Amino acid sequence: MENIKVSVEKYSTFLNKYKELHEHILTDITHCEDELKELLHTEGGFHATETSKTIEEILEVWDEMVKTHLGEGFDKMEQSVYHYINFMQEADNI
Questions:
Q1: Are 88 and 2 in contact (CB under 8 A)?
Q2: 39: pLDDT strictly greater than 70
């Protein structure tokens, strides 16, 4: 790996730190979801019902879009770095 001066150890460290960041973000989202769920009201009149509907919609968006997007972004980043390093290693062998 002469073209890029990244050891396997540094790459692993980078990847682990990125994984930690990803997990931290997901933990924060889970915390927010838990807080929102505490605001849900099954019985309580019109305003409680409307508030609960809004909160449920937010939770659906997080499940369907935000978490999925974060997971896909993480996977794409990991694949990109992996492919780049492999490409540069192959270039060193030419």
A1: no
A2: yes
